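Re: beginner question about structure tokens

> Can someone show what the tokenized structure looks like for a real chain? I only ever see the sequence side.

Sure, here's an example I had lying around. Input first:
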Amino acid sequence: MIRVELPANLRTLANVGREVELKVDGPVTQRSVLDALEATYPMLRGTIRDQVTQKRRAMLRFFACEEDLSDEPLDAPLPQEVAEGREPYLVVGAIAGGSPG
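And the corresponding structure tokens:
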């Protein structure tokens, strides 16, 4: 099982805890994990990635094994630790801001 950690706003939307477990058939890639996530929690469709272009939403980042995978190809294999369920795949809300005044 693949472990996925979600940011608070998406946990609330999906009505789940911090981490969900997903069954992924075939190669474990960002695309296959996100496809499984959206199939299991259809209310998340369009919140993590654009439904047409499949590009991630600007305010989200993807991490695994302390590596930022946000700009990696969606079909690149995820680290073995993630594929074996020893480490989670992280969907993280980016923090935006600027200096006040």
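Each token stands for a local structural state, so reading them left to right follows the chain. The domain at 2-93 is CATH 3.10.20.30 (Ubiquitin-like (UB roll)).
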